[in-house]
Design goal:
two-stranded antiparallel ribbon, about 300 residues, globular, Rossmann fold
Length: about 300
């Protein structure tokens, strides 16, 4: 790893990951948006408990209603599926989409270090780079370094990356997919396959200028992945309006496909404090899970 990459990762460790230290760490329910799968101890039912957790065998033996809690899975394996294609180098606000992607990978990676947890990665660029799961900070630095050094390489094949994870990951865990989802391929089916077995968080990274264009006259625009160029007149109000509608429709379609696949949607933007947005999202997931348990 070259010194510049190492310095970048140290900066992430000190300023990004530690902003959420103690929030995403703790028991594994802080990482997974929901309870664990391992049966825990049975205890007497209390008002507000989820009736779906009633243990009927214990209830029948004791003649008193009991529920059985679930424990968070141990030695959690987190898989980071990171888009490093050329479109991720775009950014017009607080940073590039790749800056956001690396920060998200760092947040989830550093939060997964305790208790023998392991981190693996699938890096999607010119080629699909697979990094096996291992524990420890040194391994996480190697993962983040590989992601950083591969940024801006090639076109995205999200379906192939997700399909590979679905075929090779058998043990239940957390899969974090980080991309701008500018891939029109059939990635919804492999994401649905992943969601059936794992907790999947789909992080959609966008830039404000992808949703609306400023009036800057006639400009030459280039697709960073295909190299195709075209002149557009941004002074045309009709063109800007049509562009905005098309961009919003595409964004809503991506979000619809993610939700339909069973994954958890986490939208982030280069124009906002993405670390704060991650924290807000996780707290919202926890609050929603707690409310669902009380009202069931």
């Amino acid at each position: 790893m070259d010194p510049a990459t190492f310095d970048r990762l140290r900066h992430l460790d000190l300023t990004v990951a530690r902003r959420v230290e103690g929030l995403l760490q703790g028991d594994h329910r802080g990482l997974l948006p929901g309870p664990g799968q391992t049966p825990g101890e049975a205890r007497p039912y209390q008002p507000g408990d989820d009736v779906r957790r009633i243990d009927w065998n214990v209830t029948a033996r004791t003649q008193r209603t009991h529920v059985r809690d679930t424990e968070a899975d141990h030695e959690l394996e987190t898989t980071l599926v990171v888009d490093v294609s050329a479109s991720m180098t775009f950014g017009t606000a607080l940073g590039t989409k790749m800056d956001v992607a690396l920060a998200v990978a760092a947040v989830y990676g550093f939060a997964s270090l305790s208790g023998g947890n392991r981190v693996s990665a699938i890096v999607l660029g010119d080629e699909i780079l697979r990094i096996p799961a291992r524990p420890g900070r040194a391994h996480l630095y190697a993962v983040l370094g590989a992601i950083s050094e591969a940024e801006g390489s090639g076109r995205l094949d999200l379906a192939a990356g997700l399909g590979g994870v679905a075929r090779t990951r058998s043990r239940r865990g957390l899969v974090v997919v980080i991309s701008d989802f500018l891939d029109e391929g059939a990635w919804e089916r492999p994401m649905r396959m992943l969601s059936h077995r794992h907790e999947v968080v789909a992080v959609v990274v966008s830039d404000p200028r992808e949703l609306s264009l400023p009036d800057v006259g006639v400009v030459l625009m280039e697709d960073p992945e295909t190299g195709r160029q075209s002149w557009v007149d941004t002074a045309s109000r009709r063109f800007r309006s049509a562009y905005g509608r098309a961009a919003l429709d595409r964004q809503r379609d991506v979000e619809r496909r993610i939700v339909h696949s069973g994954a958890h949607l986490l939208p982030l933007s280069t124009g906002r404090d993405w670390v704060r947005d991650i924290v807000t999202w996780v707290l919202g997931r926890r609050a929603g899970a707690a409310a669902g348990g009380r009202t069931a």
